[in-house]
Amino acid sequence: MHVFISHSRVNSSAAIRLCDELRKRTVDTWLDARDLALGVEWDQGVISAIQSAAGFVFLIGPQGPGDRWQTFEWQQVVDHEYYLDPAKPLIPVLLGNPDVPGFLKARHSLILGDTPGSYEDVAGKIVSALENPAISVDEKKLELGRQARRQALESFREYSQVLEEEDIKRAGIRAVE
Amino acid sequence: MFLNCPFDDLFAPLFHAAVLTIAALGLTPRCARETEGESDPRIDRIAKGLSESKYSIHDLSRFHGEGPDNLSRFNMPLELGMALSIRYQGKISGTPHNWVAMVPNGFVHQRFISDLAGFDPPAHEGTPISVIKAISGWLTIQPDYSPPVPSPKAILESYPKLVEWLEQAKTEGLGHLTWPVIVKGVERVIAAMSEPAI
Fold first, then answer.
1. How close is the nearest chain A Cα to the Cα of B70, in Å?
2. Per residue in B113-148, pLDDT tens?
3. Buried b (16+ CB within 10 A) or exposed e, B71-101
């Protein structure tokens, strides 16, 4: 079982450096630039590697989303609903201050600097999260998300009521006419 | 989220699945049907609804010619063009708008709307589950989107309850389902959904 490393092409060198740090810690990683078998189509190789992954590291930034290949990887994780499994470690690793895709919002993000020490530190934290996936879930953000969801549902209920009232008014006007 | 799709009986199961998904994911579904019966030209009402929405979704699965004259409907691509314009205007004015087009499964859209090359639009196969998955998948990766949200599976499990509710409402409404009735049905079904864990 391996850890899938999702990254944008513009961050390939950071992905390879992080992979090296993880491999030093005996973490089996899958990075397309290194591990895609010869003759295998990129998308098929990625789908297969995602389906057999024990966990995921998402290297994001500094410009955030926009790379269609990385979006394809995210979409696979979402389509297979791995993001809904608290036992599956999903670890966002941020370069700079990028936008994080929604499905990773309830996970603790790690900040990756440019120094060797930062790579070592982040790799160590990834190993901890792989050993104990529950720590990758950010309960505080999850609670904020729950509150936002309750508010959204309440606002939808109000929208429904307004529509119903307007409908009744229109029906009344039609009846009078 | 503004929904731009066909409103005929054939598409109704997909339309209802889309409205349910949008609302289940915490957004207010809007569409041209919310102002039906008003005197303003339809295109103006659509432009208003689009410009008031943060997101829009455009179904491009009806690309074949229809009827004895084999005519293709251009409403969906026209409204997608309006959404694109609103997106670029929004970048200047600071009111963001993001759009997504849904296309039929496979690569046929590359032939009838090749300008979407590079966007990898989500595809569906004309079934409620594929529409639920396409919308859910796209919304879930948007950066301003926060968990917890119901999974596509949970939304699909609620879908038959909506169908049942709407069928009853349709019978009571003498065969017609208004937008307020659809929204009310969706609101009832969502209220009964259990809170997602993560």
1. 36
2. 888 887 889 999 999 999 999 999 999 999 888 889
3. eeeebbbebbebbbebbeeeeeeeeebbbbb
CB nearest to B147's CB, from A74, A142, A157: A142
Q: Considering only CB atoms, which residues of chain A are within 8 Å of chain B? A: 64-65, 68, 71-72, 74-75, 78-79, 81, 83-86, 99-103, 105-106, 137, 141-142, 144-146, 148-149, 152-153, 155-157, 159-160, 163-164, 166-167, 170
Residue A14, helix vs strand vs coil: helix
Phi, psi of A82 (to 5 degrees): -65, -25
For the record, the structure tokens of A142 come out as: 């999850």
Q: What is the DSSP letter of A143?
A: H
The model's pLDDT over A108-117, given as tens digits with 9 standing for 90+, comes to 999 999 999 9
Q: Are B159 and B128 in contact (CB under 8 A)?
A: yes
The average confidence (pLDDT) of chain B is 92
pTM, to two decimals:
0.91
Residue A79 class from Cβ within 10 Å (0-12 exposed, 13-18 middle, 19+ buried)? Answer: middle
